[in-house]
Design goal:
Two copies of one chain form a homodimer. By secondary structure, chain A is α+β, with helices and mostly antiparallel strands. Chain A is built from 13 helices and ten strands. Chain A is elongated and about 90 Å long. Chain A binds a DNA duplex through helix 3.
DNA sequence: TGTTAGCACTCGATTGTGTTGAGTGCTAAC
DNA sequence: GTTAGCACTCAACACAATCGAGTGCTAACA
């Protein structure tokens, strides 16, 4: 048995009805709305086929049908109707732009903006940065034997940490040390730099000793750059979906959001742009009835992060994919250095 | 009628039983647990009195009694038993310390740590910073006509923003400008500095023009320093309390957390250290059945922020107050500059 | 005067029983 | 292949019955 055109149209009508109503769709209503001009009995026959093929699920015998994950998958890949209009996208774009003014905290601001604009839970994977190339290093005196280390990389992303230094060093001394460090480290990746710093710390090199906490520094750099980071925003949005009227369901969802390990796996950058994972495709048990739409964004040259939204599988996929595409564009734009 | 010693003991037993069980407390169980050696009938008489006085609430005629906000208030002010042991505090302290390594993002890290350690929702009010005094200013080249502005203040808090500069300026030129700016601005408050910057932008002063986006800069400084910020962490924790088994309740709570205006009012620093607001005392309608414990923390000299936890009024007050005291100490410690 | 045993009473929670109605599957006719 | 007709199913709802924890009150007691 294959999915002919009529079955496809019926399936589409069911999916779209269910996305709006969140109630099982019956043959009667369907015969009116799907526009095929056939009776409910015919629809019933088709629906029985679609159920047998695994596209529809019957909660119980006298209820209508609910789309399965397989149905959504078909819906997303073979059908893709009604995305957002150009105007809708533009107005969302403006709203998004106004919310990511500062590049520094793109993760938290981005997650907040994305969740607010989509009404889903937003995820932002900030990529590991140990492959970024060092452009320059700067030391700024904070007083009290501490200095702020600012690392400028080729992607414009800035890492800053406060480190301990000898309190004898004044502003200009620190400036000079910064210049010296820049000279030595320029062009290295952050990982290479870290290793070089560990090397200095091990040797009792005269230059090394000017920074009393140089091993500390290397460790800090490692900590901040070696791991990906996942930021979650708008988790509470799911409470507004009737799917999560049961608190235990909501709890399971939120607990899954705390498991950064599996989230990272889920958000691992994909080659192929915007990517939809439906239900079991997410690989996360608590997301069995959820869908996740991911989109990459580029930071500088080639380093990619991921943004995502997560919500009930009953999701207006086309619209959300348009949204995610726009977010991805905007972030990449905002984070690229123009020079 | 006044609250004599026996009434007090009964009230205490009820509050403590209810905090643990979250079910209305009956006279029968109470006569066994409160250790007064009187029968349930006697207890019933006392409970009737306490109900009349407004300390207890009867959900319905055949249920036990539930403490009112007034009862919790009495419990917190007149009785205060069983806080945390020295060991418990020390072990929590160690856990907390290990989680606020970086001073930079004390708000988000602090909120996360506090909510994890208390299992309540954590709030952090980062104080307005426009009264902080400028210690030094630094400009770091980012390439592409942008520079990072770092402002070091007397409390060691650093604000950094990326601003637009003339692309002709190289690292050393920016360093010199930074020194110059430091000379002029040192000792001013951030607010005064902002006004001076606006002044520069208005005049066509030669010095002003080196920074092409000087008005932009002033606006940024204003935006980042003029407003208090509230950071929320662990909002999902409330889903674990049976009080919020109903999603609408959980939703109301989370919505209240989005209303930064009233939260700020709630978190406005208090003179008197750790402060407990019970139910209506919070002044927030959605927190009618919640309690909020706030504690101040000091940033540098005199500028205070606030940390808080929010959760069901049924809360182990003494333990939580001990916790908050410890957090407050630790944060103040971590944020004070030793020089 | 305070305490206690006894007892009738209340009312939420639980369980059980119809009733309803949306929606199905099947069959026979078109 | 399509459709009308019809028996059937089963969640949802409403309603009644039962249960029991806990009360308030009264009368007896120390």
């Amino acid at each position: 048995m294959d999915v002919d055109d009529r079955k496809l149209r019926i399936l589409q009508a069911i999916v779209e009805d269910y996305i709006l109503s969140n109630t099982p769709v019956g043959s009667r209503t369907l015969s009116k709305t799907c526009g095929l001009g056939v009776s409910s009995a015919t629809i019933r026959n088709e629906m029985a086929d679609l159920t047998e093929m695994g596209y529809l699920i019957q909660p119980h015998v006298s209820a209508g049908r609910v789309p399965s994950a397989k149905a959504y998958r078909l819906y997303v890949t073979r059908l893709r109707p009604r995305g957002m209009t150009e105007q809708e996208i533009e107005s969302a774009r403006r709203a998004f732009r106004s919310r990511i003014r500062d590049m520094e905290s793109v993760d938290s601001q981005g997650a907040a903006a994305i969740s607010d604009l989509t009404h889903y839970t937003a995820l932002v994977l900030t990529p590991r940065q140990s492959d970024l190339k060092v452009r320059s290093l700067h030391l700024i005196p904070l007083g009290g034997g501490r200095a702020l280390l600012v690392i400028v990389t080729d992607s414009g992303v800035i890492r800053d940490t406060s480190i301990r230094v000898s309190s004898r060093l004044d502003a200009s001394a620190l400036y000079t040390i910064g210049q010296m460090l820049t000279q030595r480290m320029q062009g290295l990746t952050l990982r290479q730099m870290r290793e070089m710093l560990y090397g200095y710390a091990a040797s009792s090199d005269a230059d090394a000793r000017v920074l009393s906490g140089i091993a500390d520094l290397a460790a800090q750099v490692e900590k901040q750059t070696e791991t990906d980071r996942v930021t979650v925003g708008g988790a509470h949005n799911i409470l507004y979906y009737p799917e999560y009227a049961d608190v235990t369901a909501a709890r399971a969802f939120m607990d899954a959001l705390e498991d950064t390990g599996s989230l990272m796996h889920l958000l691992r950058p994909q080659e192929n742009g915007i990517c939809v994972r439906i239900g079991p495709e997410t690989g996360i048990d608590a997301f069995r009835d959820c869908s996740v739409i991911t989109a990459p964004y580029r930071v500088g040259r080639g380093h990619t992060g991921t943004i995502a939204i997560a919500g009930p599988s009953r999701m207006p996929y086309a619209r959300m994919m348009d949204m995610m595409g726009m977010f991805s564009q905007e972030l990449t734009d905002a984070l690229s250095i123009k020079d």
